[in-house]
Structure formats: structure tokens, C-alpha cells
Amino acid sequence: MVQIFQDLGSELAQLFLSVLGAFPFILGYLALILLSMVIWRFIRARMDRVRDYRSLKTVTFGDESAVVSDKAASVISIVLIFVIWGAFTGSGWLPGPLHAPGPFVGQDKFTYTIEGPDGTQADATVFVSVYRQGEEPAPLEFDAGTGPVKNDSVEVQAYRSKLISWDANDDVTRKDGAKVVAVDGRAIDANTDVDVGFGRVALTDKGTLNFEPGQGWQMESIWLPAPDSVWRRLVSVSADGYQNVTLAEHLSYSLFRVIVGFALGALVGIPLGYAMGLSNWFRGWFDPIVEFMRPVPPLALIPLVIIWAGIGEQGKIILLFLAALWIMAIGARSGVSGVKITKVHAAYSLGASKWQILRHVIIPNSLPEIFTAARVAMGVCWGTVVAAELVAAEKGVGKMIVAASKFQDTDIVLMGIILIGIIGFGIDMLMRWAERILVPWKGKG
Amino acid sequence: MTGLVIDKLSMRFDLPGGGAVQALQNVSLDLKQGELLSVLGPSGCGKTTLLNIVAGFLAQTEGEVRLNGKPVHGPDAQRGMVFQQGALFEWMSVRENVSFGPDMKGTPKAESRKTVDHLLDVVGLRDFKDKMVYELSGGMQQRVALARCLANDPDVILMDEPLGALDALTREKMQSLVLKLWKETGKTIILITHSVEEALLLGERLVVMAPRPGRIHKEYRLPFADLGVGADLREVKKHPDYAPTREEILNMIWNMEEEIMGRSEESV
């Protein structure tokens, strides 16, 4: 037990340190937000001012109705995300001057000094050529030189490093006791490395040189691909597919599972919720089951569902059915409970039968709550299907990104994540629209 | 035998923590067809319980309610209800709300349409027939509730503080409307209210109930309702009997409230 606390404590300390490390970036971002606000206010003050009622309010701080989402801020915020993303990935969409300093690419050289077993020192030069990933290194002008120690050459891919066996072409080698003592005239040993301006040179335990070209501030595309390369991937994957499955197929499979699973969950959950709202016995019977199942995250059921139903469509649809079922049942139950007793009394004294009360009073009265539940359920189903596909699937957008991650196709992973976000957002928008059309009386009771 | 008979009605129920409440004790009233009765009393005197038993939403433990000679068991279309607010169906238009009763009975739309249109004209909602109820003001919504109740042509109309949530001016207009509808339709009406003025103006008969146990304390026969039909209610208030009666009832209820307060202080 004590061990657990110690472990968790050190995790917390590490977390705190990394947050501390991120602090300058957070402050920088905050500064950007405030700066753009000041600039926008400055611009707007010079435009025609809107003279609506709200503009005449003097108390706005704390007045919830006076705070509305500033469209300009939204636009700037989104543009800024792309600008930052592009700047730190060297995107072709962004003009060069806006780029963060990139990795060193090209040719340069540094010298090193060796000390022989007899104490004599001699210099030699390393000619370095750094090339981008996927490009051929440019031919290197290399002159072995005439000194006792021959010059060396090395070709390195950007963001990688390379060992330089400086003595491979020399008469005096490490075996004889020769060792590197300085680089570019600065002393070097196993603990200190030397910055040669376009990269760093370090000395390994075995005495070879290790050269690492300068990385600049840009992210390597394997960590974060540029927005334009994600876009190109989207274009190529939607045309040719990825690993023999088209993008449309991946997306259709995911959506199919969500829609079928949600529809089944609603089909069972809504009548279940009505039964729980209308009968003591059903309420008592299902309350413990529903209240227990509701806090179980659907993701925790994935292993069990795979054991029971395999990784085919059936398993996923069962999972999504379960994800939607409890949410819909609870929504329908509270929809029924929310019927004002005066409405039911009024309907009875107007001569309505039980069935007519259900049809004309209880169902329409519970529809707004059911719609709210459906929106939540669709969101949960969409999240669950992606997670289930990450674990096991043959097709689906989750499968696509997990397959891409195995081949380090980060641009596909990113494209998939963006598509998942857009579709999730689209589903929610669609549900809200349907709600406005179908239950205009929501909140007007 | 027409009319509503409330015969030695008692209602008593057990509390979950032990003990029991005598909500009504030996309440008897005899209403002829077309009588307008208003019921006053301090809170907790059982007036809403009485109304709910007459409507059929609650069961009495002793006695009986008979409408036209037949005992009442459960709610039905013979006794219409008008509630304070929130009893309209906001998913329906004004017209659909009013035609709810006939629709439930299966009356063809073509037949009920005339009645519905006529009633909406009477309550002054001619131009609002196809609006949704949530687009209407509180006073208009109560007009819809009255029309909806009348469209069903019940023998008795039970009103549970129907004007309680309205502002003073709207309330006065609605009081005139209730009187007008009462005279024109000849319905038996029981009206529960907190307002002594309203009870006086609208009650052909007025009963004051007393609490713990809920029982009838005093009954009046008043001329004001008849005087008020089609007249200015503010003129009616100048009647020589109006102010003394009002003061008498106010004192009565005041004393009851004082007594309740005193009793609960003793029990603390």
C-alpha cells in the first residue's frame, strides 16, 4: 500500500514538472489571445458601432446575458490553430517567414582534434551533408586531405544522428590509444558535447563521434505532420483508400454500427423507460439493473463483448446497443416523470382513456427529454464505436487510425481524428436540428 | 334528479411516520344545476382535497359524491377541471387544445369545429386559434383552458384557483368572463380561491372552510354574482352589503390563521 502511494506520488511530481515545462507555451498562447483581442478591439472601434440594447449595458461583467460568443474570436482562434500548426511543421501553406526555425539541411563541416598515444595532436575535418527524409543526399565535396589524420565525411537524415568512425581511414586508431580531445577547438569528453552551430557533436563511451544535426523548432512529420500533408492524405485516401479499404467504406461501417446500435437501444430503451415511469413494479424491477449498468462505461464491456460475440458486426452492435439502452431508458423514464400532474388530470377529466393519455399527453410531453437523451446517446455511441474499432475490427474509421499508427502514418491518424471530430459534431448538429423541427415546445411547458 | 350532492364526505389518511390526517370531516353540500359556489378558507383547510374528490382524482374514506343521482368513481368527462396554470398541452395549437375533449370522444372534426370556433370567439381568442399555446400570455392561456373545458360540455365545472397566477387587471377581466360564461351556459361551477373579493364577486353561494379537520365553517348566499353578470364589477363592489361581508369573512379567516399559528407554536 505504501509502495502504491510512493509510486503515485512520484508520478504526480513528474506530471507537475512537465506542466511546469509547458508553462511558457501556455503563457505564450494566453498572450496571443489577449494580443488578438486588443488588436480586434482597436480595429472594431474604428468601424461603425452597433447601437443595440446590449451595447448600452454598463454592467456586463457577471451579466450572463451580456456574454455572447464573439464570432471574430472564434475565427481568429481557428485560424491561429492552423497557423501555429503550420508554423511548427513547416507547412507549404504558410509563407516562409512565418515558419518556426526548421531543421538544418545542407552541407557544412567541423574539425576535430585527436591526441595520439605519444601526446601529439592533429586536426582533421568532417564534411557533413544533412538531407530531408525521402530525398537523396546531395553529392558531398570531400577531400581526404594530406595530414596525418584523414578527413571524414558523413551523410545524415534530418532529425537523425550518426556515429562517425573518424579513425576508419587513419593510420593511428583508437586501438593504438588515439582519442578525440576537441571539436572545433573546444574540449570534448564523454560528458560534454559541443555545439558546432548546425548540430551537436558528442563523444561516445567507445570514443567515436556522434553527430546530431540541429532540429530547430519544427516537429518531425512522424510526430506532427503539416496540415497540407494531412489534406493530401485525405485526398489520396478518399480516392485510393488505405490498405485496400476505401475511406467511404471505413466511415460507412462506423456510421452503420452507430445508427443500428443506437436505433436498437432506443427501440428497447424508450419502452423500458416508459414502463419504469408508469408502473411501480417495473420501476422496482429495473431500477437496480439500470442504476448499476448506467455507470459502467461501455468501453469496459468491450473485452466481454469480444469474448461473447467475436470481433464481427454483431459484437459491436451489441456494444452500441448497450451504450444507448440505459441512456435512452433513463431519458424516457424522466420524461414520463416530468409530466405535470395537472395535464394528466385535465386530460382525464376531458374524458381521455389511459391509452389516449399515453398517446396524447405522456408521449408528447416526454419527447423533449427523449431527444436530449438521444443526443447524449449518439455522442456516447460514436465515441464507443471508435474505441471498439481501435481494439478489434476489420473496417471502420477507428480501425483505420490504429492500422496507420502501426505504420507510423501519423498524417492518416491525424486525418482520422479530425474526421471523427467532424462527424461527431455533424451528428450533434443533426440531432439539434431534428429537435428544433420535431419538438418546438421544448422548455415552453 | 339533477345536481351535485356531496354527502357527509370524510377523508382520512395515514402518515408514513405514524399518525393520521383528517383532511375532510363530514362535509355536505347540495348544488342545484346552474349554481355557482365559491370555496374559501385558509391553507390546509382541505378545499383542494374536496375538489379533487368531486373530480374523482382522490377517493373519500366516508360519504359519497353523487352527480345527477349517480355516485362518482374516478374522473370522467362530466366534471371538467380548470387549473391555475400549466394544464394546457403545449404541443398542440389553441384549436387542438380546445377540441381535445371532443377528439377523445371520437367526435368528427367537422362536427366539433363549429363548437370550438364558437367557444374561441366567446372567450375572445378569435385571432389566436392557430397559435401554439406557449405563444399566448397567461390570461389568454386561461381563456383557452376555460374554452377547452366548455367544449366538452360537462355538467359541472371545477375551478382550482383558475385566476390565481394572473395580474390584477387581467384577473378582473377574467372574473367578468367567468360570470358571463356561467350565465350563458348554465353550468354548475365550484370555484376555489384564495381571494376573498373573488369569492364574493363570483360566488352565488360561498362556503368558508376551517382547517384541522377540514370542514365547512359558514355558508353565505350572496347577490353579487347575479349583479355582476354583464356589469362593471367595480360597481358591484359599491353594494352596501359588499364591504361588511368582506370584512366579516376576512376576520373569520384571519382568526383561523391566528389559531393555526398559535397551535403550531404550542406544539413546538
From TrEMBL, chain B:
UniProt keyword annotations, A-Z: ATP-binding, Cell inner membrane, Cell membrane, Membrane, Nucleotide-binding, Translocase, Transport
Signal sequence residues: none
Domain of life, per lineage: Bacteria
InterPro entries in UniProt: AAA+_ATPase, ABC_transporter-like_ATP-bd, ABC_transporter-like_CS, ABC_transporter_ATP-bind, P-loop_NTPase
PANTHER family: TAURINE IMPORT ATP-BINDING PROTEIN TAUB, TAURINE IMPORT ATP-BINDING PROTEIN-RELATED
Family per record: Belongs to the ABC transporter superfamily.
CDD domains: ABC_NrtD_SsuB_transporters
SUPFAM superfamilies: P-loop containing nucleoside triphosphate hydrolases (SSF52540)
Residues covered by the ABC transporter domain: 4-236
One of the record's GO molecular function terms: ATP binding
The UniProt record lists the keyword Ribosomal protein: no
Gene3D superfamilies in the cross-refs: P-loop containing nucleotide triphosphate hydrolases
UniProt keyword Nuclease present: no
Organism: Pseudosulfitobacter pseudonitzschiae
Pfam families to which the protein is assigned, alphabetical: ABC_tran
Protein name: Taurine ABC transporter ATP-binding protein
